[in-house]
Amino acid sequence: MRYPLLAIDGGGTKTIAVVTNEKGEIVATGRAGATNYQVVGEKQSQLALQAALQAAVDEVLAGQDEAEAVMADRETVAFDRAVFALAGIDTKRDETVVREIVASALAGLRVEVGEVIIENDCLSALLGATGNSPGVLLISGTGSIVFAHDGKGDFIRAGGWGHRVGDEGSGYWIGKEAIRSVLKMYDGRVKTESILAQMILEHFGFGHIEDLYNWVYSENYSVDDVSALSMVVEKAAEQGDQVSCSILDKAVTELEQLLYAVLDGGGNDVFRSAFSLVLQGGILQHNRYIREKILASLNTTHPRLQLITTHPEPIHNIIQRGLGC
């Protein structure tokens, strides 16, 4: 059995592997946990990747009739191309490590792959969405990053340094700024009246600011839980809370800095003319205030940009990347 494409979207929380037909329609899907080796380690990354791939292949085989299944049991499943769009490929060393992880995962399966593409998941999503034309992808979800492609094979990125030292303007960053602001108000360092503290306490079911502090330094603290506070900040801002509005304005500034570092940096004039813009991530998809502020700024400085609306699931852009190579 031969299929044109095996596409994989692997991140820090989950992995999805899909098999497509010639039309790009998904005929089989496999899911597993995180494959970002920076988060889970190399061995767990390999096991999760192999599990997602095996599940997709098993679904392909399960869809055969009895005669085909007997034949398929004696041979491998072949793919013309496989695109591994994986988080955690940020440096040359990362590329080497991830190639070894992919090779080990494939070695444990009865599959044959013609062309293998292994690249950063953001890069795959951008190329799939823009069809290799000049374009910029800005992501603000749990984390934040911007990727740009000049249409000639050169790429630029900014951000994406992770929650410990970066991810400015992301959901996690907004949530962290909210906690910082609440603690400053508790100390008396910020005198502004705000409903944010009470809303955060209610969100977690805490009775006192010290409960929030204790949680931050407990084993229950998580990036995802802090990121979820971005929605609390948004609700408070909608009610006119000035502290929350200030946090969102700072998030806009941080995301604009990411964008303009790419658009105006590197001596590249491509983005002074027409190019495509893709916005992804929960903050840019659901926080209207941040989204509209950024678009208003870009429409002033780069009026020839074209905003592309893509499928909310990145795997669909990765499929287009694989079919369009």
Helix/strand layout:
Blueprint: E1 2-10, E2 15-20, E3 26-32, H1 37-40, H2 42-62, H3 66-72, E4 77-86, H4 92-107, E5 111-120, H5 121-130, E6 135-140, E7 144-149, E8 155-159, H6 171-187, H7 196-204, H8 209-216, H9 223-238, H10 242-263, E9 275-280, H11 282-286, H12 288-301, E10 305-308, H13 315-323
Parallel strand pairs: 1-4, 4-5, 6-9, 9-10
Antiparallel strand pairs: 1-2, 2-3, 6-7, 7-8
Helix pairs in contact: 2-4, 5-13, 6-9, 6-10, 7-9, 9-10, 10-12
Structural overview:
49% of the residues lie in helices and 21% in strands. The strands form two sheets. It has a five-stranded mixed beta sheet with strand order 3-2-1-4-5, with helices on both faces. The protein starts with a strand and ends with a helix. Keywords: Kinase, Transferase.
Helix content: 40-55%
What overall geometry do the principal axes of the alpha carbons give? Answer: globular
Major sheet description: 5 strands, mixed
CATH architecture of the largest domain: 2-Layer Sandwich
Total number of domains: 2
Order of strands side by side in the largest beta sheet?
3-2-1-4-5
Q: How many helices?
A: 13
Q: Which H/E pattern describes the elements?
A: EEEHHHEHEHEEEHHHHHEHHEH
Keywords:
325 residues; Nucleotidyltransferase, domain 5; 2 domains; 5-stranded mixed sheet; 10 strands; N-acetylglucosamine kinase-like BadF-type ATPase; transferase; Euk-type_GlcNAc_Kinase
